[in-house]
Design brief:
The protein is an alpha+beta fold and about 550 residues long. It folds into 3 domains: about 110 residues, Immunoglobulin-like; about 325 residues, Metallo-dependent phosphatases (Purple Acid Phosphatase, chain A, domain 2, 4-Layer Sandwich), CATH 3.60.21.10; about 90 residues, Sandwich (Immunoglobulin-like), CATH 2.60.40. The protein has 7 helices and 35 strands. The strands form 10 sheets. Strands 2, 5, 6, 8, 9 and 10 form a 6-stranded mixed β-sheet that branches. Helix 2 links the parallel strand 11 and strand 12. Helix 1 crosses helix 2. The relative contact order is 0.10.
Amino acid sequence: MRLTPLVVAATSVALVAPTAAQAHSPATKPPAVPAAPGVSVPGGRYEQPVELKFRAERGTTVRYTLDGTTPTRDSRVYSPGRPLRITKDTNVTAVAFHGNRSSVPVSYGYLIKTREKPLAELVVMSDVHVGSHASADKKYESFFDTIGSIFPRPDAILSNGDMINDNGDGKGPDHRIVSEIFRANLARKGMKNTELLISNGNHDASLAAIRAGYPREWFPDSGGGYYESVVKGLHILTVNTETYNSDSTQRAWLKERLTAITADPANTGRPVLVQGHRPTTNTTMDGQQAANPRLAADLGAFPQAILFSGHSHLNINDDRSIHQRDFTSVNDGSMSYVEIDHGYQMVTADGLADRFESPTAQALFVEVYKDRTEIARVNMAADKHDIYTDGKWTADWQPPYASAGTLSGDTWTVRLKGSTNQQIKDNFRYTAATRNTVAPKFTTHRPLSRVTDEKGGTALRIAQARDDQMVHHYEVDITDASTGASVVSSKVLSDFSFVPRPNSLDIPVPGAVAGKRYVARVAAVDAYGNASPAASLTFRK
């Protein structure tokens, strides 16, 4: 079994479990709000099933879920002393209840593997956007603790552009801050042989600023911002997407290297990893925020290529974040905050608001085996917060994170099966033709109800639907029953980027009049547009 290093286990448990000083004797009453439960085995990567025991204050009852939802008083009860066996990749969420009080939920992510050893282990991240030690030091201690819980000694960390947040305003020296933070954490975690490979992004000031900020081996370009690395026999080609479309020299270099690498019999069936900051056209997330159509054209002749890209901040919960046609494209997500495609609203403390951002940090954990590449999607932080506080933008939520190390989706598996390029492409599984067609379902008899919100107003409560991948949003229409006038017409995000996901969403009914009847119709929709039958409710204020 791949055991989590002792220092990681101690840190992880300290963040979410009651400490010895918090333990209570039988005669001591629990505090007003119970402490969150801890677990006997911290989240991470393991090479066999794990058996968990929860730790909680005396007099409390621990309830848990295994599906990413928030435990309620109807959730499964943990029997003290009886371990919970985890046999597959799972998010475990637990809450301690005492009377009518409950702890905050805490979640733990478990990747359950076999004893088969990968050829290489790599972390792929993007859009670090660091600007100061004050805002980033503690965050990256937590982030590297999460990395260490999955890959104690990763072979490489790919940081795919936008290390800083320069907007032509002279912030190039901030690269030194990122370098100091990364070097301190590599040393702290004992990752002395981990290679760090950086690409150029649109917020990285200049190539000269990158070269000045990092050790030469982190950005070994020869002048154009692109270069080749070999990690444990695996070829990694870093491209400069800020110039790719117009840089004929870079294009020729990439095609020449891909031709030579894939022609070598030693690389048959083995991926060639390509990292570049901006996504290329007609690939991940339905082509959102894409650039460099010539990169797509150049990679099109090489189905062994796996392109990792960032820039968009688009979340990796969404299965549109992987795409295959002529090659494989994968969205990296973001280490600073994630975005959701525009045109939706979120439920906030102030009611429905136009939001397409979430203060969630995510990264990919890539394992290359002889016959496949496994790409795990992991949250560095996915606690529920609004991106605005008192009307001001804030993506700098500080640790501890109750969701650190949780999974943001199932692991993607890329297989390069076939002796010809066409055969490899014919065996791709993440193509447009194989898109998911299963619609979400409401699982309760009455998924809609009228409630009074915290401010005394009327709200429509939606009991969250279920989907085989994820519910993306709800189409919500509320009308005045007597006039047919629209009161609410919105696409409301399901809060899928948070762990745990809330069990219900309360949609305010603005200006509701006492005694008046309203009609609500709600359909649950997944990321591919598959929609449930609409649920309906007629109610009065």
